[in-house]
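Suppose you are handed a protein chain with no further information: no name, no annotation, nothing but its sequence. What can you learn? This example shows the usual starting point.
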Amino acid sequence: MKKGYDVFGPAYGVMLRNDLHALESIDHKFMREMILLEEESYDFLYHAAPVRINMEAHELYSFAKRFKGNDDRQTMEHILRYTAKIASDYQTAFEDMKFGGTEKEILERGTDWCADMARVGAVLLQCNGIPARIVHLVNLEKAYNGHVVTEAFYEGKYGVCDFLYGYSFYNKRPLDAYDLTRCKRYLEGYPEEYASLYSTAAINEYDPMGDNDYTVSLPNQYTIRIIETEHNGKWFMGEDKD
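A reasonable first move is to predict its three-dimensional structure. Written in structure tokens, the prediction is:
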């Protein structure tokens, strides 16, 4: 199985190593340990029992209960609406943003950064007894074109939830990252720029009760250059050069 920063190829490997989260943070740990979703890894990623973590000692455990619905799907939808509103209301300029930290810190300051919000969604799900894990997405046809979402395990299957945009994917059953990267009809009706992110995916588990580093970071020069440059989906800092 392919694992780590380079699962999406060497150019994206350079980009991920320059991610603006603190190098020893849980967010970089995800990228060092994520497993590429492909035929070779499918059974390992989808046929094992979902990881269930005792979250009673987590600082967001009591807060998360306010989202409890009549079933797991409704609970997930309540969380989606809450996080998507935080993201849509967020007005902080990029150069003034903070990244990473605990999920409580992220909620207190707000964010519209996908990786931070995916982690928040995963924790709120897990506090409600719903197994959840992190999914990194990349559009291999473009440079600097990635996204982070979450998979929640409910109704006996994983389903993708995007806590930044408030999307959940369901067609008579939850639709997981494997479904969405293999069957594009499930993405019909979504913006083309968004749907194209489901080109390929990598997955990792998240234990919020583990010994994780939650250092908060600021924008780095690498990411500032990406945001401020009209790169038209092309590598312009030599990431694709051997």
